[in-house]
Amino acid sequence: MEKRFIDGKTIYLRALEESDLEGPYLSWLNDPEVNRYTTTGLFPQTKEKLKAFYQKVSSDPNAVYFAIVDKKTHAHIGNIKLDKIDWINRRCEFGILIGNKSYWSKGICKEATRLVLNYAFTKLNLNKVCLSVVETNIAAVKCYKSAGFKQEGILKEMHHDHTRNKYVAHLMFGALKRDFFKK
Q1: Angle 120-125-126 (CA atoms, 0-180°, nearest 5)?
Q2: ∠ CA 142-115-21 to the nearest 5 degrees?
Q3: Cβ atoms of residues 35 and 27 within 8 Å
Q4: Which residue from 83, 85, 99, 115 is spatially nearest to 38, judged by alpha carbons?
Q5: Which residues contact 165 (CB under 8 A, 6 or more apart)?
Q6: Cα Rg of the chain, angstroms
């Protein structure tokens, strides 16, 4: 039985479930290419660590984690989240991981991001969604801009790019409710 929560054109979002831990999720966390721009890939991930992470986030009232699922195959291909939700100031942090590399460069990031922004602004009544991205992650920067985020700042030398052996900046982006619905 499908457990769709948010329906898109090529994907749907559903709650991240404990059964997802048995699929390809763990391999994504240990794949250097998938985690090139994250700190997750610096330490080996285990099933126990993943289960502890899942227990923590699934019981957090200030976080919403979704599985990104291909509509045709029903394959779990990534995750997307709204985290550190501040209910007083109506803002949160955004994150996405497309773990299945065969879905890269197919518009999945933009579609999932727009679905989650719409959910954040309409269902959760948030005013702002924020994110931080490594400046050399060009595909992600392009995705976020096309999905409705605007760059608001730069934090210099925040991430060590091991492939280039140098420090690079984090770009700070925000999406406001009023701007999102103008598009």
Answers
A1: 60
A2: 95
A3: no
A4: 99
A5: none
A6: 16
CATH of 6-180, one of 3.40.50.150, 2.40.30.20, 3.40.630.30, 3.40.47.10: 3.40.630.30
Confidence of residue 44 (pLDDT cuts 50, 70, 90): confident
Active site residue 167: no
Query: Per the residue annotation, which of 25, 65, 144, 167 is the catalytic one?
Result: 144
Question: 134-155: per-residue pLDDT in tens?
Answer: 999 999 999 999 999 999 999 9
Helices (H) and strands (E) in the chain, counts: 5, 8
Contact 157, 134 (CB under 8 A): no
